[in-house]
Amino acid sequence: MSGSSAAPGAAPCRFAHYFAICGIDTDTGLEPDELAAEKKDASFEFICSCTGENLEQSPLKRTFKSKVLAHYPENVEWNPFDQDAVNMLCMPKGLSFRTQADQRDPQFHSFIITKEDGSRTYGFVHTFYEEVTSPQICSAMQTLHLMHNAQSATANNPSSASSSSSSSMDSLASSLDEAEPPTSSSQRAGSYDSSRDTLYVSKAMCLITPMPFMHACRRFLLQLHRAVTSATAPPLPLESYVHNILYEVPLPAPGRSLKFHGVYEPIVCQRPGLGELQLADFPLAEAFSLLGVENLVQVFTCTLLEMQILLYSHDYQRLMTVAEGITTLLFPFQWQHVYVPILPASLLYFLDAPVPYLMGLQSKEGADRSKLELPQEANLCFVDIDNHYIELPEDFPQFPNKAEFIQELSEVLLSFNVSANTGAPPRTRTSPGSAPCTPARERRPVALRQLEDDGRNGNLAGEDLALLQLLQGNPTLERLQALTKRTGVTVARVDALRAGVSAQGSQGPGARTAAEEEELRNAKLNVQLREVFASRFTTMFADYEAFVIQSAPDLESWLTNREQMHNFDKASFLSDQPEPYLPFLSHFIETQMFATFVDNKIMSQWEEKEPLLRVFDGRIDKARLYNVRAPSLRSSSYQRCSILKESAQAIEQRLMKIDHTAIHPHLLDMKIGQGKYEQGFFPKLQADVLNTGPTSNKWSHRTATAQRRKDRHRQQTEHLGLDNDLKEKYMQEARSLGKNLRQPKLSDLSPAVIAQTNWKFVEGLLKECRTKTKRMLVEKMGREAVELGHGEANINGLEENTLIASLCDLLERIWSHGLQVKQGKSALWSHLLHYQTREEKLQHVDLQGVVPVLPSLHPPFFCLLRHIQSMSEIKTDVGRARAWIRLSLEKKLLSQHLKQLLSRHAVTRKLYKRYAFLRSDEEKEQFLFHLLSLNTVDYFCFTSVFTTIMIPYRVIIIPIKKLSNAMTTSNPWVCVSGELRDSGVMQIPKNVLEMTFDCQNLGKLTMVQLGHDNAGLLAKWLVDCVMVRNEITGHTYRFPCGRWLGKGVDDGSLERVLIGELAVPSGEEDSGRGCSTPPLQRSPSQARRISITSLSGRGKKAVAYMESADQMGDLQETVEPLGMTCQSLCRYVNAINSTSRNIGKDGKFQLLVCLGARDRLLPQWLPLLVECPVIPRMYEDTALLRDRASVNALIGVLETLHDFPVTLEASLVKGIDL
């Protein structure tokens, strides 16, 4: 508290908020993890056994509880210190013990703490090993070792069955602990003898900062550790350096650079300006090298689509580098869900979360991925960082222009001499004794700079220090200094002087060290890679503002009605995009990150713009100045980023010219004798001087003024607008699950808290189900959907498929929540198989009795399941589960089947824990009710997706039974056509009106061609209709005919083209499912097929007229301007007449109308008919063709067809040569 009271306005602008030390508490001794003792509790079945004391492992391999030994200051008002979270993330697997025979290299890693409001705090940790001097600790370790040896001698084959069978999380834990890291000695691994060995224990130094200055914090901690392990004491007590970075080093202002001083060397950092991409200090080059360019782009795409992403590596810093690298590249969007780059061992239960997440899991070196059992994998992107490979989910859309995008990224990497291929990067970790560990030729400028800038800090008197700060960076004095060096005044050896002068001549007045050169190179590469990603989004979403719907008059009404409002015209936006972009964009605009982006845009009309949105809008405005284009001219051609050099130059200029130098570390007013230096041991720092900051300095006053101004503005906003608490409540409720669960609570792992977390998951899943089913219904509601902006037929199908894929993902997550034992990749399919096995056993028992129960009770369920199992085209459990969902939804049986599946409570209790969604009775009933609402509309989600499977069809021909023409003596044939393909001509056996055939999926059926060869005595055939049934989906189509087929009757046609419609089911099985989607043709903006029957009309006189050769000659004698049109009409008529098909006069005229509509020629042909000389002889005065006004109106109607693409079935125009 004293820290916050000392300088209340300063901390938001401080470089670091806290400095903490974590390690072993010698007062309490060795403590096993408390969670392990409670593992038997049902609420803790998911906690792995490796978190506590495992007597099967050597004591040196076990992990023990660490503690925060000290942190400074005690508390900061705006960022309270979370002791449990810091301790857990500084040492995610607890304390680690080593002996002199083991490797004890220091390790660096970073972590992140995400608060409920989405704000982040960064931690940077330097872990090293310190000798254990406590006799009690050494004695306890010796005792544990003796107990371990005794147990090993008595139990040759220790059993782990109890831990492996309890749950899938336990098998995950055991697989993580199977592989042990190799030891560096021939001595038996894990042995310890207090009389012979020296015991070491891990200790961690941690800096907590508001911004991710990773390189600066790493260098500071490295120098601090170097001061502890050095043979000579540091120039000043360690308190001076810690106090300096906590209270006297400010955050760099936006667009400025800052230099502050560590123990031995100055440290430089920079912060991007307000119009630039936000700070990202984690090296993207390492992330690209670890995964490869293509793999990283694939993981990036999974992140954009909000899938579950699990990073897997033995190195904590690699986990953080890849996680931060990916989320940094999302600009202008932000990850909205669970984000835990380093998942502590005690939080493995969070992998069971049925929400999108991005988490990192530590592996043991040499661990086998095949033995790693994860709770859910149906929608999981698994990233094995160490082995440089990824596992992607099924049904994965590719990022637009992926090949060109990867090529541009590879070129940027190669320009910095970074391999674009997958490969292990060089180790970036350095030991304290070797840093900066450069060759002698590179170390010489370091020696010069230490003399010139006094890199040792604190050896100068106060006046000299102030004078040095005044003179540093003065170009005149620097030139004089260079001149004196050239005249022979030496400050080091002559060769070192020459190296320094050459460095000055090539790099400017301030020569940089090798480490600084590497940081500058990483910073320039980072920003160029990020600019390539940002350029893609600027191109894809350049016109997004035109599709944002801002209908609310004020912020309060918008927040109140957020869930009911339609904020983005998705259909119009997709219709404006190039065709190759649609598979990705249709999924992406359904994500939470895109919804939040649109929300921020709408709220910006009442509030200050969110920083990322402000930068993005500024880039779009700038792009429009140089590239003005109409939205209709969208192109899928790849546009390369054009500002790579400018972005890198901005960073280099900031680092070349330091804008601000912080106060040097100095002696503090502290008691002499405390904190005595002892090599190899981090001293106990004096809390009284580190908990209190300086009473005033120049930048804290500026910050305090700015803070007061912000406070006044906030108070005015609260007074005039909506109450902040209510506003936050609305915003949280308006956005989907994940917003409140960005990170699990690390401070309280009690059963009650974990139960509450799982209850939030259950509530969130139910809310997501309600939202998705409502959206799916709106998409299918015909005219109502058109009024909401969903009208385009091609976009409608794309959106529908996206929503159904999202529903499949939701059902997989629901069935994965609270799973006891994971079996296979798909939890839903595993449950279906368990149910099927149980019912078959019951059926076998019933068959031994009198009455077989099963066949009469639930035949549709098992028939559908067996259909899916018989499809050899589907190779995986996830694919089978999704096929089952789609087929059940298409048959309008999804809710009924899931209710039947969950009716066996014994199976559910066996498979799921008590907190699982499927064991929450009330929520389960609501869930099934929401799915039942989907029966009110028609879906073809199975038919349209599984396009290559073989499907049995049944054809029934229904004749009109009069004049004894129910049968024909000729040889009939039929051809069934759908949206995907046609069946080909199939001969119908004589005297048979029903046939079945197997064919590759035809899609939705659209047309049937029925005919015969006119052979035999009774060649005439009067057909009422043809019925075709898909035997898998159950859809039945009716193709009305009502015409004769035969010569000398009707129009003499031997072939009829029949247009079908979906028959409404009517039967006991389908009662209650007789609802259907409103017809698509109600939408005036729909690009639909032209119905043949709707365009035919009564055209017999026109047909007869056009078939006459004399009248064709009359057409050719028409006026000159119509010559080209007349030729086209004659060409089409001749092509139709010359076909070998016996389609009759009506059929020919219908075909002519269809071809004219497709090729946009009908409005040109109609005036030819009106001007023909034979028109007065063929038509009465009251006929339409004799009325000029009516003809002109008809031409106007026909011209409207030009706005729509007319697609004709291939079988319809077969044999027409144009």
UniProtKB/TrEMBL annotation:
Q: What is this protein called?
A: DENN domain containing 5B
Q: Write out the GO cellular component annotations.
A: membrane
Q: Where is the signal peptide?
A: none
The GO molecular function terms of this record are: guanyl-nucleotide exchange factor activity; small GTPase binding
Origin organism lineage:
Eukaryota, Metazoa, Chordata, Craniata, Vertebrata
* InterPro entries linked: cDENN_dom (IPR001194), dDENN_dom (IPR005112), DEN5A/B (IPR047278), DENN_C (IPR043153), PLAT/LH2_dom (IPR001024), PLAT/LH2_dom_sf (IPR036392), PLAT_RAB6IP1 (IPR047277), Run_dom (IPR004012)
| SUPFAM superfamilies found in the cross-reference section | Lipase/lipooxygenase domain (PLAT/LH2 domain), RUN domain-like
Residue ranges, annotated region (Disordered)? 151-193, 421-443, 693-718, 1065-1088
Instruction: Fetch the PROSITE patterns from UniProt.
Output: DENN, PLAT, RUN
The UDENN domain extends over 45-608
Tell me the organism: Gasterosteus aculeatus aculeatus
Similarity field: Belongs to the RAB6IP1 family.
Residue intervals of the RUN domain = 798-947, 1079-1213
